[in-house]
Amino acid sequence: MDIDKKKLDTIIKKNGGERNRILAIYQDIQSEYRYLPKEAVQYVCGRLDIPLVKGFEVATFYKALSLKPKGKHSVCVCLGTACHLKGGPAILETFERELKVKRDDTTEDGMFSVDTVNCLGACALAPLVRVDGKDFGKTSPPTVKKIIKEFKHGA
Amino acid sequence: MIQSLDDLEKIKEDFAGRIKKYGKTVKICFGTGCVSSGSQAVYDGLVGALEKESLNKKVRVVKTGCHGFCEKGPIVVFNDDEIFYQSVGKKKIEEDIALLLDTIKNGKVADKLLYKSADKLKKFVSTKEIPFYAMQKKIVLDLNGAIDPEDIDEYIAHGGYSALQKALTAMTPDEVLDWVQKSGLRGRGGGGFSTGTKWKSCKDAHGGPKYIMANGDEGDPGAFMDRSLMEGNPGVILEGMIIGGYTIGSNQGYIYVRDEYPLAVKRLGIALEQAVKYGFLGKNIFNSGFDFDIKIVRGGGAFVCGESTALMSSLEGKSGEPRAKYVHTVEKGLWDKPSNLNNVETWACVPAIINRGWQWFASIGSEGSKGTKVFSLVGKVNNTGLIEVPMGTTLRQIIFDLGDGIQNNKEFKAVQTGGPSGGCIPKEYLDTAVDFDTLWELGSMMGSGGMIVMDDKNCMVDVARYFLKFLVEESCGKCVPCREGIRRMLEIVERICDGEGDEGDIAHLKELGRAVNIGSLCGLGQSASNPVLSTLRYFMDEYEAHIAHKKCPAGVCKPLINYTILDNCTGCTLCARECPSNCIIGDKKKPHTIDTKKCIKCGMCYEVCKFGAVNVV
Ligand SMILES: Cc1cc2nc3c(=O)[nH]c(=O)nc-3n(C[C@H](O)[C@H](O)[C@H](O)COP(=O)(O)O)c2cc1C
Ligand code: SF4
Ligand code: FES
Ligand code: FES
Predict the structure, then answer these.
(1) Where in chain B is the domain with CATH 3.30.70.20?
(2) How many CB pairs under 8 A join A and B?
(3) Cβ(B70)–Cβ(B33) below 8 Å
(4) Domains (ranges, CATH) in chain A?
């Protein structure tokens, strides 16, 4: 993976070049690349003089960060308590089955990645699904099929 | 720059002048829930229609924060709660926009958009009449849904920053501390620790600089109080923190916000920028010589980072592992300096205490828990959403009066409080007056305020499994009892759910649970067995049904259930077409059957059947 060093420098600078802002730096890089390339971790650690083990410790500790590339569309199924009790697991299974992919992974064609989250904070609309930042409330296995269609064709 | 009471009054007057030209106000909810239900389209539609009718200069359309009634969103409110509309634009948006316009122009109330009770017998026009709102007492959420959270002037016009002005110009830090102590305020983040006592320890701690922090990590699944507050009225949190900084002797604050809450980050950021512009943050605030700054930091999606020492470690740019608290964080916290962390709702109580006096605050609530508490009432209850009630309100009032009872006339089974550290409370205790101490006595916890209602279709063993799984994923792995013990407990409960449990499992679970609680460093491990122990305490019969009879009474645990089709099947073939494993057979217009050997128990047939002909046994 080729990384754009200039871009990374800008991000580091935006965060004041502070070591304690490493999480924020990683998050900014991730919103740029849609994941956190390991080359970027290496580069940032070099620039901020952080030992690589520490840099990767942080990069792997936080769930918000992914060292694996994501699909074109990112599906996030809520499995928080409210969503669990209102059928969240069946929603996840439907995505897995329809897209032929397991959670925390990306479809072979790179179109969809499916992840889970433990509450998106809109529990009154459980079960909830977030696709590319857009929330869908009160979903059910049949509506999952519709959502997939919407993003497949909108793509 | 605002430096005096007169300056604040001037802003109020200017704001009043600014909105006077409008005859009417329409408030459209732009909380996360309503946005996902389509409030943007309602806003665009209404603004467009008003322009067409040249009414845009006469009607003020405001985007507000969450009104609490998210499930019924998008919510639209007219003229200070005179008319309350729900589910606007959900069905036939053009028609609804026309109805809104009709209300604006002719004052005609649109029946279609009014809230109706679950039994459809009663309908309500104004917000104040709806039981969901009428029974609430709003202190923290007072302005949520009433103001534009992106306009500091509107917050000021409703009394915002007057508590700060009062504290900084008319009270000494010791006086403020005294008020907070006497108010009886206890932390809203879960533990219920006395806020005054915490502030005092940090204030008295030697060394500096001192730091104060707001915990907006809101990790408990099924809870969204903090999110709605941060999105709906960020100013009140900032104001509380600045007062706290003045009291404790700190010049730097941090707000740690959950990564999944981008809108909260944005709104807090706007409120912060505007507060700096007005001089509520920065140097010499209200000419008092006091300086204060706040930084917003995004979390990284780790539940354990809500724990105080882990949160501070995360702020320092490390992974968020808790540390032992032999030395308290009020003495050695962030960067080893005295630090005071409070939940965002705790901070939001402070301005009200300063404005209205500690006596007033202490007069609300129960013996040991003062003030109100915001709960997120979700799950199988008719009215789901955010509520704020005085401490000491009973579970029955919350679930059956405010919540209007259980969905689809099902039977109430339990309410889960306290998130993964809490427990499930059965119907025998519905008359418990909810406060920090009573919930603790029932083997649960207040937690941050999640209340998840369950009916007879929810399996309590499955709920225990759910929380164990959550905790296995979220344990940071530092302590062996937490890392390994919870995993072992999960294995046992999973076996029980799969119908492979045996006699000794219950004793094993109890023993492991005790060991994990005793042997863990932080609150996550120390309370990890609560969901299991509380379900064992109140729902032993369900465990026994799984173990001895290999049955899941609620029909949840897949290996123990089967889907069947009843005689009232009309043979519409919908389920057969939708079944992903092609195991439903039958002729058109004749009852179908399921080949149980091929059935993967995905529940699709159950979901799609329009005649309720699919059954779970
Ligand atoms: C595992 C764990 C997670 C926690 N998560 C949160 C949280 O999300 N929000 C919160 O305010 N407090 C959380 N707490 C409690 C905090 O440690 C801390 O007690 C609280 O923020 C203090 O504020 P308060 O005194 O105002 O309640 C958590 C504690 C533990 C042990
Ligand atoms: S109790 Fe669990 S989460 Fe807490 S420090 Fe130990 S391992 Fe980490
Ligand atoms: S539990 Fe799914 S949004 Fe909260
Ligand atoms: S988001 Fe609109 S009422 Fe909660």
Answers:
(1) 562-616
(2) 154
(3) yes
(4) 5-61 (no CATH), 73-152 (3.40.30.10)
For testing contact with chain B, the best of A18, A45, A56, A84 (most B CBs within 10 A): A84
Do the interacting molecules here have an ipTM over 0.85? Answer: yes
Q: What is the pTM of this model?
A: 0.95
Rounded to 5 degrees, what are φ and ψ at B264?
-65, -40
Provide CATH 3.10.20.600 ranges for chain B: 372-455
Residue nearest to atom 23 of ligand 1 (CA): B342
The predicted-structure confidence for B248-265, as pLDDT tens digits, reads as follows: 999 999 999 998 899 999
Q: Which CATH class is domain B460-548?
A: mainly alpha
User: Per-residue pLDDT tens for B337-376?
Assistant: 999 999 999 999 999 999 999 999 999 999 999 999 999 9
Q: Which fold has domain B18-128?
A: Glutaredoxin (3.40.30)
Residue of chain A whose alpha carbon sits nearest to that of B609: A142
Q: Out of 3.30.540.10, 3.30.1360.40, 3.30.70.20, 3.40.630.10, which CATH number does the structure's domain B562-616 have?
A: 3.30.70.20
Rounded Cα gap, residues B31 and B344, in angstroms: 17
Substitution site in B475, B484, B489 for ligand 2 pocket (most atoms within 8 Å of beta carbon): B475
CATH class, domain B152-362, is: alpha beta
Q: Pinpoint the residues of chain B covered by CATH 3.40.30.10.
A: 18-128
CA distance B158 to B476: 43
Cβ–Cβ < 8 Å for B462, B497: yes
User: In the block, which residue shows the tokens 């940032």?
Assistant: A44
How is residue B384 written in tokens? 């789901």
B144 CB within 6 A, ligand 1: no
Range B287-303 average pLDDT: 96
Chain B residue closest in CA terms to A60: B319
Q: Regarding the domain delimited by B372-455, which CATH topology (the fold level of the hierarchy) does it fall under?
A: Ubiquitin-like (UB roll) (3.10.20)
Q: What separation, in Å, do the N-terminal and C-terminal C-alpha atoms of chain B show?
A: 69
| CA pair distance B245, B340, nearest whole angstrom | 9
Q: From the CB of B282, is ligand 3 less than 6 Å away?
A: no
Q: How many residues does chain B have?
A: 617
Q: Within an 8 Å CB–CB cutoff, is residue B37 touching chain A?
A: yes
Name residues of chain A where pLDDT drops below 50: none
Chain B residues inside the 8 Å CB shell of A123: 222-224, 376, 378, 384, 450
pLDDT at A155: 55
End-to-end CA distance of chain A: 24
A125, B71: Cβ pair inside 8 Å?
A: yes
Chosen from B259, B265, B456 to mutate, greatest number of chain A CBs within 10 A: B259
Q: What is the pLDDT of residues B370-400, one digit of tens each?
A: 999 999 999 999 999 999 999 999 999 999 9
